[in-house]
Design brief:
308 residues; alpha/beta; TIM Barrel; two-stranded antiparallel ribbon; 12 helices; 41% helix; disordered N terminus
Length: 308
């Protein structure tokens, strides 16, 4: 019996991660095409971008208009209202400023999102960033908290080991629940995926081990783990030694090792095809060996991705 075109496509399409959800990243001036929309105050174009991400399967839309948010709150409000005119997806507001976040939350229409709370992206243990939680008295929201840094002896320090990442994540999540009344379902732990190109300290390994520890911790059941994956292939060539697309498959390799442990959200472009890599995947095999390497051996392992 011959297959129809649709049936053939269905049987050859890569499997997707069943529990992985996306926060659409494209409403951000870091993308040249989006920056042009902001520069031209093209609200219709911004709306079309919001709809495109929603139709591609995004669960949230991240909103970042850049430095203009600090100087032009009316434009910030216009952008939020325009997006909510065309989609019911909840929004994630990506600004470290309490002033800007208050504008965002004040202009967010809960009813137009079918009652779904927005996300404040993001806080850290540093008092200047944690003060965003002061807004919770007047506005209810979910929160992204960065597990990559902690306060130590009055200063902010980057986490390097799995234990440091895990303890920071657990401490911050516990504080949000006990001090503010959030549930763990309201908490997104940003696990900060690092570029492999210069990772001599095993940051990728530490992040993956911390994700596994959090996933195994029954006291953390229900918390979300997330991250942006674009850094992982920074400065790497486009093609791997086996001819496959290197950067995207590196992202898929990271997800292949973490989604089963509860890593369930990514800040990403929704129309990219994120899928598990099979065990015989060249990229996955090299990535596993890279994770086992240390120091200069890790840098040599990186070259294996693109040199046979």
């Amino acid at each position: 019996m011959t297959q129809t075109t649709a049936e053939a496509a269905a049987t050859t399409a890569p499997e997707k991660f069943p529990n992985l959800k996306l926060i659409g990243e494209r409403i951000n001036p870091g993308f040249k095409s989006t920056r042009a929309l902001f520069d031209n105050e093209d609200l219709a174009g911004i709306q079309a971008l919001a709809v495109k991400q929603a139709e591609a399967g995004a669960a949230y839309l991240n909103v970042n208009i850049g430095s203009r948010a600090m100087t032009d709150p009316n434009w910030m409000a216009e952008v939020i209202k325009a997006i909510q005119q065309v989609t019911t997806l909840p929004l994630s507001f990506d600004f470290p400023s309490k002033k800007v976040q208050e504008i965002c939350l004040s202009n967010y229409d809960l009813a137009k999102a079918n009652g779904a709370l927005p996300i404040v992206n993001s806080i850290t243990e540093h008092p200047d960033r944690w003060e965003l939680m002061d807004l919770y008295k007047d506005h209810k929201f979910k929160v992204i908290v960065m597990a990559s840094e902690r306060m130590e002896a009055g200063r902010c320090v980057g986490n390097k080991t799995a234990e440091e990442i895990y303890q920071t994540a657990k401490r911050c999540a516990g504080r949000l629940v006990s001090d503010y009344g959030l549930t763990l379902d309201d908490v997104f732990l940003d696990m900060s995926v690092s570029a492999i190109i210069a990772d001599k300290e095993g940051l990728n390994r530490s992040t993956i081990e911390a994700i596994a520890r959090i996933g195994d911790d029954t006291e953390m059941r229900g918390v979300h783990m997330m991250g942006g994956l674009s850094n992982i292939g920074q400065q790497m060539p486009p093609k791997a030694a086996d001819g496959s697309e290197l950067k995207h498959n590196l992202e898929c390799a990271f997800l292949t090792l973490t989604v089963s442990h509860g890593f369930d959200y990514i800040l990403a472009t929704p129309w990219k095809n994120y899928h598990p890599l099979p065990e015989d995947s060249y990229i996955l095999q090299v990535y596993r060996k890279f994770l086992e390497a240390k120091g200069s051996d890790a840098l040599r392992a990186v070259r294996k991705f693109y040199k046979a």
